[in-house]
Design goal:
Two copies of one chain form a homodimer. Chain A has 352 residues and is an alpha/beta fold. Chain A is built from twelve helices and twelve strands. Chain A binds a DNA duplex (16 and 16 nucleotides) through helix 2 and helix 4. Chains A, B: Pfam families: LacI (PF00356), Peripla_BP_3 (PF13377).
Chain lengths: 352, 352
DNA sequence: GTGAAAGCGCTAACAC
DNA sequence: GTGTTAGCGCTTTCAC
């Protein structure tokens, strides 16, 4: 069943049917009603593909994410998805598995004309090929919005967080507890959250006159397993740190695994502050102090920026050239894991 | 740039270009090369929408899930997504938020023509409207595969798990520990996992000559908050249960929240066994004994079934009428939370 | 306010 | 082996 069947049935031309389908004005109320009646009666719904071909665009947006199972990303997707649904966009989900090759492959197979926009958390900011491909999308009129991670060699609209400030606050919280020997398990240096959080760590130390110890900086690549190894390495130092800042949720889990294995009590034998919260820990003995941010809203915001770009493309809005890069604020939630039994202040309050 | 440009440039007809694009045989090696050269040279890629319109189908599959952020569903998505990518399908993700109205809305807006297949974890099996819509999809040639939950009034291909058996094993494990007063926080009665797991609970009791106590059965609707309330209710009974079976991961979290609040020690003051594991707990003091199943594989399997249906539709395979309903096995991982200090066997081994 | 008709870019008979 | 051509279902000028 197509627009012609409806037209015939309603005794009008396909053009008119198309008009009511698209809510055009110039249609007599009477004919409009008649047509809508027929449409309902025949339970007709227009063919999106044909429509897309005709108008040369779609309402599909692609969301590319490094790890489908990471709750942080799920939450972003949730934000994107809710806002997309409200505005009748459909979102395709692609997992890159933290693998640039896979990222390229997906980007190549994404038919440009099928996508109206692209939201991506790129695997690596050092990757030129991804940057090239993204630029191509923009050139073809498909706007790109980054979330959380940046790319070099190009500027796109983006939603980031105050990684440096958040990390700095976290480490300063440890310093306030009296810690001087503070380690960090970093993310990859090729991602904004990776290097900015490290920068925040360094700044906190500098602000407080604590000199940097290279041994205390180990990369965990935001991966649980590597972070576990990193934690082992830190603890096995001759002069191990009394506190560790873990750079993201996976990093924190890896570190916790190590502590558990060694039967070290968090908030007593060792202190840990993490970036990004882990909801499930709330009902356990792990009272994690963590940097938090409005993750769901980051997704919504990315979608909002995209829509703005669509409107600009249609000439509805001006200032086509301004690139929008939003920074969301972070805040620290203290729960006790920043404490240490050997340092002033004690940790009793948290271990009742 | 389109197929005509390429044709002109290569000095052939658009049909021939189309032939090489689609790997048809009847093309002279020489012309094929020539055309491929031009394609590469002009960096041309065919328009998927036009192709879809022409052949009357797409490679898009829709995945509808009740809760985008539940890790259980993320894992399923991961399975679907990986397999889809390997076979060049694209997956649209839709979150129904456990809301039938939203589910209907999405189903209605999913233009039938745009989807080649549908994988869904329906909100409620009692919902006729969803069932009707799904049937319509199948009638229009869009196969539907259910995961985890069923719908009444219709039969679709599906991937379920052995909910009853899994729950039964979990509860029998508690019974083996000496428990006689065992509570359950159930899921909604309108979902297969909900009622089947309850059935498993009942069967375990019956198998072991333990009579049913209605007070011990409380519905948590698979929601964390409701489950928290349910746990409170159980503990406030005059003769509270010594052990509780929690029917899914969210249910377990709600119960844990309550225990934490009341400072009850899991595996000592009370025993809990849950359906579905919670990864994050591994590094905490919560040694949850849980029913486990191959979640990622359930996603892959759903996708595999869908592809099979596509092949059948194309007449590649026979036996068009057989409905395929797969049941994945579950197994129990014991970690100590089934123990209780007041019962034989002791729990010391788990509290070193 | 409405209709006729020319596309959108590709595929698939059918003819040669 | 290759070309011609008529769609796929919709939108959108341009007339009327």
């Amino acid at each position: 069943m197509n627009i012609y069947d409806i037209a015939k049935e309603a005794g009008v031309s396909p053009a008119t049917v198309s008009r009511v389908l698209n809510n055009h004005k110039n249609v007599k109320e009477e004919t409009r009603n008649k047509i809508q009646e027929v449409i309902k009666g025949k339970n007709y719904s227009p063919n999106t593909i044909a429509r897309n071909l005709s108008v040369g665009t779609s309402r599909n947006i692609a969301f590319m994410v490094p790890d489908i199972e990471n709750p942080f990303f799920s939450k972003i997707l949730h934000g994107i998805s809710d806002r997309a649904m409200d505005n009748d966009y459909n979102v395709f989900m692609f997992g890159t598995a933290e693998n640039t090759a896979r990222e390229h492959k997906i980007l190549d197979s994404l038919k440009i004309e099928m996508m109206k926009g692209l939201i991506i958390i790129p695997v690596s900011e050092a990757d030129r090929e991804t940057a090239e491909r993204l630029k191509e999308f923009e050139e073809q009129g498909v706007p790109v919005v980054l979330i959380d991670r940046d790319v070099r060699n190009a500027r796109f609209d983006a939603v980031f967080s105050e990684d440096m400030e958040g990390a700095c606050e976290a480490v300063e919280c440890l310093i306030e507890e009296g810690h001087k020997k503070i380690g960090i398990i970093t993310g990859p240096d090729t991602s904004r959250p990776g290097h900015e959080r490290l920068k925040g760590y360094k700044r906190a130390l500098a602000n407080n006159g604590i000199s940097l110890n290279k041994d205390y900086i180990i990369c965990g690549n935001f991966m649980e397993d590597e972070s576990y190894e990193a934690m082992k390495q830190l603890l096995d130092l001759e002069d191990p740190p009394t506190a560790v800042f873990t750079s993201n949720n996976m990093t924190t889990l890896g570190a916790l695994r190590c502590l558990k294995e060694r039967q070290m009590k968090l908030g007593a034998d060792i202190s840990v502050v993490g970036f990004d919260d882990i909801k499930e820990l709330a009902y356990t003995d792990i009272h994690l102090t963590a940097v938090t941010r409005p993750v769901y809203e980051m997704g919504c915001e990315a979608m909002r920026i995209l829509e703005r770009r669509f409107r600009k493309a249609e000439g509805v809005e001006e200032e086509k050239l301004i690139i929008q890069r939003n920074l969301v604020k972070t805040w620290l939630i203290k729960r006790g894991s920043e404490k240490h039994k050997d340092l002033s202040g004690g940790s009793d309050t948290y271990h009742t």
